[in-house]
Amino acid sequence: MTKKNKKFELKLDLKAELVHIESKDRLKCEVIEQQHGQHKINYRPMKRGKHELHITVNGDAVQCSPFPIAVAPSPQRFVKPSRVVRGLSIPRGTVFNSKGQLIVVESGGATVSVLTPDGEKIRTFGKLNNAYGVTVDKDDNIYVVELSNNRVNKFSSDGEFVAVVGSRGNGNLQFNTPLGICYNKRDNNLYVPDQSNHRIQVISTELKFVRCFGTPGKGNGQLQNPLYASFDSANNLYVTEYFNHRVQVFTAEGKFLRTFSQKADGQKLSLPWAIAIDRSDTVYVSENGPHHGPHHVSVFTSQGAYITTFGGPGTKEGQFNDIYGLSIDRNDSVVVSDHGNWRLQIFQ
Description:
The protein is mainly β. It contains no helices and 31 strands. The chain has strands spanning 14-20, 26-28, 30-33, 39-42, 49-57, 60-61, 67-71, 83-85, 94-96, 102-106, 111-115, 121-125, 131-136, 142-146, 151-155, 161-165, 182-184, 189-194, 199-204, 209-213, 226-231, 236-241, 246-251, 256-260, 272-277, 283-289, 292-300, 306-311, 323-328, 334-338, 343-347.
């Protein structure tokens, strides 16, 4: 046999492993050899959230390994809630503090209640005028937005009044019918969708003006009645626009990044209201208007790819009547503020 006719074969030992970033759980993947030197990698994650796919050939990592993998929630988890918290009076905005307690605006926006993780009421405080949004800072101070008074209230973690800022207008530290508020742990500031001023106003936790961004309109970076907002793990701000029927994504400094509204079969977001983002950057958006609308929650990836929709109008478990708040607990359970049914529905 001449050298020209010799066949040289290089054996490739290709292995793949999926690692859950938070728990460090490892899952060996099935590697199937295909034609023309290609390989197929099969895996079935046991946990949702962020993963890394590690690929090696003959013991050495391939270029760019590990690869980021985000495992979205299964649509089946939203068919029926794992838990329902009743006995609340017209619940609106919700948020979890560092202890896992749930803070909820109730009584038609007049008070704030603190609940245990199991839904037992610990305390109620405040004397508010048509409040909606609520958030907490790194010290568990509580901030509540009053739509009718056009202001932001600050309370201690125990519910003691600390300070208030705001009045009706379009200047710094003035608002026009604000609903939502969210906290950015990176810069320790509060971001308030200033609805009828069509902008995002940023204030410090000391209730001082920092900056604002956004102008009225339908173009990229413009806003039309922004209602609620939430940050992802990359420190990008997602804003629901009620009358533009979309979600816009900005940097914390206000630079436009992208927008999304497209769902399946040519459908689009309709009257988006509340928004929440879990640890895998899955985005949850409620769609409803006061006393009308689809009354459901649509789910997207952080890039705006549609995943699923759950809910619908009604009083049964898994159905809703005006969703005025969404929040995520430390286990990535989704808490839906079922305003018109006077309850919270929790999906695990």
